Amino acid sequence: MIRMNPLATAAAVIAAAAALSACSGMGTGRAAARADLRPTAAVQPNTTTGTVRFTALDHGVRVAGEVRGLPPGTEHGFHIHEKGDCGDNGNASGGHFNPAGGTHGKFGSAGTHAGELPSLVADASGVARFRVDVHAISLNEGAANNVVGRALVVHRDRDDFTTQPAGNSGPRIACAVIVPG
Ligand code: ZN
Q1: Kind and range of the H or E run holding 75
Q2: Is the pLDDT reported for residue 47 higher than 80?
Q3: Domain spans of the chain?
Q4: Residue 170 dihedral angles phi and psi, to the nearest 5°
Q5: How many A from CA of 17 to the centre of ligand 1?
Q6: Which of 67, 150, 166, 75 is CA-nearest to residue 116?
Q7: Ligand 1 centre from 120 Cα, in Å?
Q8: What is the pTM of this model?
Q9: Beta bridge partners of 39
Q10: Residue 66 CB: number of other CB atoms within 10 A?
């Protein structure tokens, strides 16, 4: 009669789980960063929050996540700003991240700021979900277009993609520093 030792079985299961998680971690092998958006006091009341993930691609960065607590059905300017400082209601983050000296315009248009992102569009519940591949930025330490340590900013108003230097999109209602992880 063969009897399994329960402790040995449990140890084998744990070892298998550890091997699996190690594999999945190594399988991605890509630099990643995140930004946890918090509301500023630029407008009251303000319940804007968000969770955004940055994942390195072969050329560029996938930016994906959601922003919550927006007024339902509204559109909002959404950019990476130059300085990783959300003080002064997000104003300390400075202008748009623009290492190549572009002009403000719509995401994907030639010659625009590296920090342009597609505008957020809130659904009927005030949630904007998005996933976009941004080729003008990187997560590479030391690169001019590295966005780690810079700020992600949500504006109160829609971006007109024309007015310089920031699209007339109004106060900064949420901000987060982009951090590794
Ligand atoms: Zn902005």
Answers
A1: strand 75-76
A2: yes
A3: 32-180
A4: 80, -170
A5: 43
A6: 166
A7: 12
A8: 0.84
A9: 174
A10: 15
| Residue 50, token pair as written in the block | 């968000």
Q: CA 155 to CA 166: how far, in whole Å?
A: 10
Can you tell me which residue has the tokens 């092998």? 29
The hierarchical CATH code for the domain 32-180 is 2.60.40.200
**For 92, which DSSP code?**
G
Coil/strand/helix, residue 53: strand
Whether the Cβ atoms of residue 89 and residue 42 lie closer than 8 Å to each other: yes
Taking the centre of ligand 1 as the mean of its atom positions, its distance from the CA of residue 4, in whole angstroms, is 62
What residues sit around ligand 1, an ion, with C-beta below 5 angstroms? 79, 153
Task: Give the residues across from 64 on adjacent strands.
Answer: 53, 131
CA 14 – ligand 1 centroid, Å: 47
Q: What is the pLDDT of residues 86-111, one digit of tens each?
A: 999 999 999 999 999 999 999 999 99
* Torsion of Cα atoms, 167 then 170 then 171 then 174, to 10°: -60
